[in-house]
Amino acid sequence: MSVTTGAFMILIAWAAIRSRRMVTDLGLVGGAQPIGASGEVRLPLAPIGTVYVAGEEWSATTPDHRPLQRGTPVRIIRIDGLTAVVEPEPGPSPSA
């Protein structure tokens, strides 16, 4: 019984160590979001709200704490802890 329990403990420790060395792809949910990733405001930023980026909802704010309405397309400019700092996507240039 002791040998079997010891073997299972070694197997679990080996799997845990191996999983810590794994690297996630940037496109996967749970991976770090690259600077410049696009998303959309879900809860208005006044000054803190949420944005939806790459399949995840992030707490977000703007660098100058200006409000943004729901549905506004945004781009990540930096990550500050667990809060994304975003700016509105530049709109299409007006046609002549």
Going by CATH, the homologous superfamily of the domain at 26-88 would be Nucleic acid-binding proteins
The CATH class of the domain at 26-88 turns out to be: Mainly Beta
Number of helices: 1
| Helix share, percent | 10-25%
What is the makeup of the main sheet?
5 strands, mixed, barrel
Task: Describe this structure in a few short sentences.
The chain is α+β, with helices and mostly antiparallel strands and about 100 residues long.
Present the secondary structure layout.
Blueprint: H1 2-20, E1 38-43, E2 49-53, E3 56-61, E4 73-80, E5 83-88
Parallel strand pairs: 3-5
Antiparallel strand pairs: 1-2, 1-4, 2-3, 4-5
Descriptive notes:
This protein has a domain at 26-88: Nucleic acid-binding proteins (OB fold (Dihydrolipoamide Acetyltransferase, E2P)). The protein is 20% helix and 32% strand. It contains one helix and five strands; from the N terminus they run H-E-E-E-E-E. The protein has one helix spanning 2-20, and strands spanning 38-43, 49-53, 56-61, 73-80, 83-88. A five-stranded mixed barrel has the order 1-2-3-5-4. The radius of gyration is 21 Å and the shape is elongated.
Give keywords:
about 100 residues, alpha+beta, OB fold (Dihydrolipoamide Acetyltransferase, E2P), 5-stranded mixed beta barrel, 1 helix, 5 strands
